[in-house]
Amino acid sequence: MEFFTVLFVPLFIFPLPGVTAINYHDRIHVPAMFLFGDSLADAGNNDFIPNSTAKANFPPYGETFFHRPTGRFTNGRTAFDFIASILKLPFPPPYLKPRSDFSHGINFASGGSGILDSTGNDMNIIPLSLQIRQFVANYSSSLKQKGAGGVYSAKTHLSQSLYVISSGGNDIALNYLLNTSFQRTTSAQDFVKLLLSKYNEYLLSLYHTGARNFLVLDIPPVGCVPSSRLAGMKAWNGGCLETANKLVMAYNGGLRQLVVHLNKKLEGATILVTNSYDFVMKIIKHGKSYGFIETKSACCGAGPFNTAVNCGLEIPKDKRGEYKAFLCKRPGKYMFWDGTHPTEKVYKMVSRQIWHGNSSFISPFNLKTLILRRH
Ligand SMILES: *[C@@H]1O[C@H](CO)[C@@H](O)[C@H](O)[C@H]1NC(C)=O
Ligand SMILES: *[C@@H]1O[C@H](CO)[C@@H](O)[C@H](O)[C@H]1NC(C)=O
Ligand SMILES: *[C@@H]1O[C@H](CO)[C@@H](O)[C@H](O)[C@H]1NC(C)=O
Ligand SMILES: CC(=O)N[C@H]1CO[C@H](CO)[C@@H](O)[C@@H]1O
Questions:
Q1: Ligand 2 pocket residues where CB is under 6 Å
Q2: Is CATH 3.40.50 the classification given to domain 29-276+357-374?
Q3: Where are the domains of the chain?
Q4: What b/e readout covers 172-205, taking b as 16+ CB neighbours within 10 angstroms?
């Protein structure tokens, strides 16, 4: 019940074109930003799911920027918070957060979720399919119920807004690679095809609801996060988990093809797709030239790669002699905040690349170009 009400409200208060909210001297006008996906985008939805076990609701999460945990899986803002600021929008509030103002966007993302419904379902999170349905079902029905003027402004609002999706890493790292019977019944190639066919469906349902401007995130090298290095410490000396990275690369290649195809097929739509994989790999290899002193171990956590004991969790008694509770002094010098997520510093760099990066990071062009072309 609550879901419907909160989604319904903003449609009545959309600024009409030509009224106060639009500043014609400012060509960068995007009325709202809608976010979907996993912990790279979640800004606290999981905190409002009582039995979810994928939460970042304890210190020191958030300590660098917000100075308190917000449910974001990092020390500060996510890449999409930075994008919101560039677009002069507030950080899109979590869909499940009571009494939020959704007039400039909603964040539907849920940490631990994936493209497949089976991903993360033991953690009580919201799969991507449901995130999309929550948006589509309620926006479509409220559009139908509006009078002519209302439909017009709601349609404009939806078509000028930005839709961002970050998903897929968990399908590989937390689902397929951990489930041997899944691997037996479905080849890697078919698994990637399955992910992309679902992704195609989600993009189409957003399009049919009225979305036109999309930003789609490729999967970063999940095989190189501290927890993957820890998992393979003995077998390959703490290098990257290549089985994961190979799947990621296969998926990313397919995603780019899908985006090229949909950009031709979907009239009036533009889908931007990133290449965060190569960007993150470059930083891992040449950390110093990007201002990082550490690109392998987490800033927060303890034990090998600072991830054998998770960030912010209490250290078990029997491990106290072995591990020392550890939080790095300068998170801005670390690539990774915890065992699986980057620091705010990396997110800031990624957001800059999304905004004005060249074709080696984002295609067919960057977000700035998309927005200037539209207005
Ligand atoms: C978690 O809560 C939801 C409803 O809030 C319920 O449907 C689900 O069964 C619960 N899961 C577990 C494992 O308790
Ligand atoms: C593993 O994958 C199989 C086949 O897809 C599925 O039926 C099963 O539920 C999965 N197991 C777990 C623990 O997720
Ligand atoms: C793209 O930008 C990066 C720096 O962000 C630079 O290293 C690279 O040479 C540029 N590539 C092209 C094709 O301009
Ligand atoms: C798909 C979805 O989230 N639909 C929601 C829309 O609003 C109704 C009415 O409150 C909810 O019951 C649905 O769950």
A1: 118, 179, 181-182, 185
A2: yes
A3: 29-276+357-374
A4: bbbbbbeeeeeeeeeebeebbeebbebbeebbeb
